[in-house]
TrEMBL record:
Cross-referenced PANTHER family: CHEMOTAXIS PROTEIN CHEA (PTHR43395:SF1), SENSOR HISTIDINE KINASE CHEA (PTHR43395)
SUPFAM superfamilies the record matches: Histidine-containing phosphotransfer domain, HPT domain (SSF47226)
Biased segments, Acidic residues type: 188-199
Region described as Disordered: spans on this chain: 184-203
GO biological process, one term: phosphorelay signal transduction system
Protein name as catalogued: HPt domain-containing protein
Coiled coil: none
Residue ranges constituting the HPt domain according to the UniProt record: 5-109
Signal peptide: none
Length: 299
């Protein structure tokens, strides 16, 4: 049988084969890990990246059958990653056979043979893996909703008691999911916890600015957040105590001078933070004095 010309520098093809075989060699241990823990995210991601890489590189070398096998394995692993399919023995078995087939195809390429020895067995395995992919893509909507619902709950637990803006984001996601969900009862989105969640609407302008700046940023703050701070500063000017008017005006002046030309820089953030530390809202002093008044009346 004559050597196959793949239309690419043979040395580059051999480099691709070497790298791909090395990647696939590591996959066996990952499947063993998944048999012990089917939800091992790290192993799932590594298997996905392996077949994804081989898929992309094989197309460059005109190895279209290698590409097709890697692609269908990638699609199946992606459904596992998304939670649309649970990794189990059946999926493990068909993927391991797909990986073994890829290894055999790479051996053929190394020997400059056609990628596939037996078209019938190749197509049969492709169809078998495809059937798993089709099953994952056509899952019952309620099952998919359960996965989404779990992800939302995980998000809440991750940020519970954390930054008010992140909790506000969670609240909005929950409300939108409740609108979209065709289901009700226990499987609907988690109920909003009024004790744990705090939305932007519950914050006064000063608290809103402080909560945005608390998140921090590397160089320049996101423009939408920066404009949100600008609006809050203007609103805050009407709410401050008389003793704080000068400070809030200085903060607004710094904002209006810097933001239009340089963006909301970390320096501007420090300046505004310094001004806000000395800003008091109208009525704050009255609130602070009430406990003292109660003590005096009690005495």
């Amino acid at each position: 049988m004559a050597d196959v010309d793949y239309g690419v520098d043979p040395e580059l093809v051999m480099e691709f084969v070497d790298e791909s075989e090395e990647l696939l060699g590591d996959v066996t241990n990952l499947f063993i890990a998944l048999e012990t823990n089917p939800e091992d995210r790290e192993s799932i991601d590594k298997i996905f990246r392996t077949v994804h890489t081989i898929k992309g590189n094989s197309a460059f070398f005109n190895l279209m059958k290698v590409k097709s096998m890697a692609h269908i394995c990638e699609n199946l692993m992606n459904l596992v990653r998304e939670g649309s399919l649970k990794f189990n023995n059946d999926i493990s078995d068909v993927l391991i056979r797909g990986i073994d087939y890829l290894k055999g195809m790479l051996d053929n390429v190394r020997s400059t043979k056609p990628e596939v020895d037996d078209e019938a067995s190749y197509n049969k395995l492709l169809d078998e893996i495809t059937s798993f992919v089709d099953a994952g893509n056509s899952q019952d909507p309620e099952a998919v909703w359960k996965v989404v619902n779990k992800d939302v709950g995980d998000f809440k637990n991750q940020f519970k008691g954390g930054d008010p803006l992140l909790m506000d984001l969670w609240n909005r996601i929950v409300k939108n999911l409740e609108i979209l969900s065709p289901f009700s009862g226990e499987e609907s989105a988690p109920e909003e916890s009024t004790e744990e969640a705090s939305s932007e609407s519950d914050l006064n302008p000063k608290e809103l600015i402080e909560s945005i700046l608390k998140i921090g940023f590397d160089d320049v703050l996101d423009e939408n957040k920066a404009k949100q701070i600008g609006s809050a500063l203007q609103e805050l000017r009407n709410l401050v105590d008389e003793s704080s008017v000068e400070k809030i005006n200085a903060a607004i002046n710094s904002y209006e001078t810097t933001f239009p030309t340089d963006g909301f820089t970390s320096f501007l953030s420090d300046v505004i933070n310094d001004h806000l530390k000395e800003v008091k809202l109208a009525g704050d002093e009255e609130k602070e004095s009430k406990p003292e008044e109660k003590k005096e009346s009690a005495g």
